[in-house]
Amino acid sequence: MKTGSQGPRLTRRHFVLLAAPLGLVGVSIARAAAAAGSCAAPESESLRESLNYAVVAADAASSCRHCAFFTADSAAPACGSCTILGGPVDATGYCDSFSPPA
User: Fold this and answer.
1) Which helix (H) or strand (E) holds 88?
2) pLDDT tens digits for range 32-80
């Protein structure tokens, strides 16, 4: 930090170096919160990431609920099972393997 006539001055570089860890903490907290409220199994995270799985689809018409690979769970209507991901997923979710029913 530079010092001036008014004391220490925070430069842009120092600000970025100080703020970067806060961003990482925020991302970690958001991922943990999403996982806690998600139906998806944590052990399938790498497969979900490779298929760009999202808990909430950008377009509701292409959500898991409307996919040929999805089977609804009568006990938990917000969840279901996916044959591609091999386990539980959110009915509102989406992945790159979405396929409308025939």
Assistant:
1) strand 87-90
2) 444 456 787 888 889 999 999 999 999 999 999 999 999 999 888 899 9
Q: How far apart are CA 95 and CA 12, in angstroms?
A: 39
Smallest CA-to-CA distance from 85 within 71, 73, 66 is with 71
Residues 63, 23: one domain?
A: no
pTM: 0.61
Identify which of 56, 61, 66, 68 has the alpha carbon closest to the alpha carbon of residue 94.
56
Whether the CB-CB separation of 78 and 91 falls below 8 Å is answered with: yes
Same domain (yes/no): 14, 61:
no
**Which tokens is 6 given?**
């008014």
